[in-house]
Amino acid sequence: MSKIITTFDQVDIPEDKTTLVLCDIDDTILRYPLSFKDFYKNEITSAKFMFMWTTSKAEKKIYMEEYIYDRYISYKAKTEPLHTDIDGFNNMIQKIYSRGGELKFLTSRSIGYKNFTRKQLEKIGINPDLYAFHYTYESGVKKSRYIWENIDKEKYQNIIFIDDREDELELVRQDHPEISTYRFTY
Ligand SMILES: [Mg+2]
């Protein structure tokens, strides 16, 4: 299991090592006023109504999920994001950089969202010019595999991976036992 954290202050950045932090974006540093779960709850009645005509229960579920998911995407496109923990994040950044390390964002977003992502980070108080970004969507692989192929692990004495998704964390733990993993929740 990964260590579960609710603030970035809980991430251990050793003083005597150069640390690379690979940090997820969605639901790790950036969130929306409504989580997908809350949004889903709000939409379920209208979605049920929309797909009333579907007789197959399984089919109805698929249609409803797709419908709500699409609506959540447009909700996110027009809603201002929030930082999950700006103070903790800034403290962590200060520790990483004062000890010679660096933070790279590792997101499963598409590179097509590059400018949108940069704008969103600015809105939540993060200067995107200070960090490297890795967008994994086009690679079609999970983050663990992406790390194998794109991150030069030898350059760092210590590597940390922070994400909100247990499936991603689990694979990183399996494939890169030397990487410390943290699951962020808010
Ligand atoms: Mg995430």
Topology:
Layout: E1 3-5, E2 19-23, E3 30-31, H1 36-50, H2 57-78, E4 82-83, H3 86-98, E5 102-107, H4 114-123, E6 132-135, H5 143-150, E7 158-163, H6 166-175, E8 180-184
Parallel strand pairs: 1-8, 2-5, 2-7, 5-6, 7-8
Antiparallel strand pairs: 3-4
Helix pairs in contact: 1-2
The site of magnesium ion (MG) has 7 residues, from loops.
Describe this structure in words.
The protein has 2 domains: about 5-30 and about 80-185, Rossmann fold; about 35-80, no CATH class. About 40% of the residues lie in helices and about 20% in strands. The longest helix is centred in the middle third of the chain and has 22 residues, at about 55-80. The mean pLDDT is about 95. It contains 6 helices and 8 strands; from the N terminus they run βββααβαβαβαβαβ. α1 crosses α2 (about 55-80). By secondary structure, it is α/β, with parallel strands linked by helices. Magnesium ion (MG) binds next to loops.
Which strand order does the major sheet show?
Answer: 1-8-7-2-5-6
Give the count of structural domains.
2
CATH topology of the largest domain: Rossmann fold
Gyration radius (Cα, Å) is 18 Å
- Overall structural class, as computed from helix and strand content, comes to alpha/beta
Outline type:
elongated
- Supply the CATH superfamily name of the largest domain: HAD superfamily/HAD-like
Cα end-to-end separation = 18 Å
Unreliable sequence segments: none
Architecture per CATH nomenclature, i.e. the level-2 architecture of the largest domain: 3-Layer(aba) Sandwich
Helix content: 40-55%
- Strand elements, count: 8
The CATH class of the largest domain turns out to be Alpha Beta
List each distinct ligand once: magnesium ion
Order of helices and strands: EEEHHEHEHEHEHE
Average pLDDT: 95
Q: List the total number of helices.
A: 6
Major sheet description: 6 strands, parallel
